[in-house]
Write a structure and sequence with these properties.
374 residues, alpha/beta, 13 helices, 49% helix, DNA/RNA_pol_sf
Length: 374
């Protein structure tokens, strides 16, 4: 192996595995002992957490990316602790301070009854406990009715407020599949294996690609939502966008090197998979899950830059009836186009030379269309 040491504490290791899968496992232990930041290999057999495993042959790009993401993660962990999953539950919407006091009083009365068994005061304490418990149940029932009416009224005034949070808390209580065999079966069905596709472009002469400007990079960052789920690095988008604004030139150098050498790092192609249930279908059925794949935001920003350039080059050459992947157009516009076309077709009469026509709407539903397309 060849080790390259750059300025500062950054360590980069380049190794040729000779297509030996077990060699990567042995290399992982060496990387852990030497505390290597980035590993450059010709082919990667499996994802290993920790260091940045890069299959690109460009040393500088690997070094820049490993250094950038390490510093961003370190800064974010220092400023904000990572959120940990736990069993902490928020109070229900109908809970109140009066109910809390009555519940504490009821628990105290119940303990007194339990400790007074076979004592002369047991009957008297039991009557007091039942009275307090009855008041608690009545207070809870009244609070539920009153708060339910308030929730219904809040839906019209604030659709994203407390009613929305109550509903989402019910929907987010599902359990994702955790068994390896079940996960492997679901992934194989949802993501069919495709044959490798090699796309070669022959250029008569090497064209000079214009470098990304500060304006292009900042516009691409603005199109990335702050609250969108991050990718494999788990760094929030707001943290990465802040880092880009702080060290703009460093990120420009990284993205421009990707353009100049025609490289899209393998690390940006990896996705963090989340499975969402579809209704009440059986969990063993792969079609019962809707996959969501979160990509690294750094790669998404480069895609945004390229998308803006492609849109500028195409201009108004697209078909007017195309609504997908176009600015200022949505599914609502497509639905309105279909409805308006049908209204015009069936308007008027069909007798005595009328303009009324026949209208046919053909809908095609392809199962798992996006991941199965070839």
């Amino acid at each position: 192996p060849k080790s390259t040491r750059t300025k500062g504490p950054l360590k980069i290791l380049q190794v040729n595995l000779n297509h030996w899968e077990a060699a990567q496992d042995l290399l992982a232990q060496t990387v852990k002992e030497l505390k290597v930041d980035a590993v450059i290999i010709p082919d990667q057999h499996r994802n290993i957490s920790g260091s940045a495993w890069v299959t690109d042959s460009t040393h500088k790009l690997a070094a820049i990316w490993a250094h950038v993401m390490r510093e961003v993660a370190k800064a974010w962990d220092t400023a904000m602790h990572r959120r940990r999953k736990g069993n902490r539950h928020l109070p229900v919407y109908w809970w109140s301070e009066d109910i809390n006091k009555l519940r504490a009083k009821s628990l105290r009365a119940r303990r007194q009854v339990q400790r007074a068994r076979e004592k002369p005061c047991f009957s008297q304490l039991e009557v007091v406990f039942k009275e307090i418990r009855s008041n608690l149940r009545k207070t809870i029932g009244d609070s539920k009715k009153r708060c339910w009416i308030e929730l219904i009224e809040e839906v019209n005034n604030d659709p994203w407020g407390r009613p929305y949070k109550v509903v989402m808390s019910k929907l987010n209580g599902y359990q994702q599949p955790t068994y390896p065999d079940q996960l492997e079966r679901i992934v194989k069905v949802l993501f069919p294996t495709q044959e490798p596709f090699e796309y070669h472009v022959e250029h008569e002469e090497k064209e000079m690609i214009p470098p990304i400007t500060h304006k292009e990079l900042m516009q691409a960052c603005m199109r990335v939502g702050n609250s969108k789920a991050p990718g494999m690095h788990h760094i929030p988008n707001i943290a990465l966008k802040t880092a880009i604004q702080t060290a703009l030139q460093m990120f420009l150098d990284m993205y421009n090197r990707c353009l100049a050498e025609g490289i899209f790092p393998e690390r940006w192609k990896r996705q963090r998979l989340a499975l969402l249930p579809k209704g009440s279908k059986p969990p063993d059925d792969p079609s019962s899950w809707r996959p969501l794949c979160m990509l690294d935001t750094a790669g998404e920003i480069l895609e945004r830059v390229l998308q803006s350039r492609v849109e500028a080059a195409i201009g108004n050459s697209l078909e007017d009836n195309q609504y997908g992947s176009r600015k200022g157009r949505s599914t609502i516009d497509a639905i309105n186009q279909v409805v308006n076309t049908s209204k015009v077709a069936i308007a008027g009469t069909r007798w005595k030379g009328g303009a009324k026509e026949y209208c046919l709407l053909a809908a095609l539903d392809v199962r798992n269309a996006f991941n199965s397309a070839k």
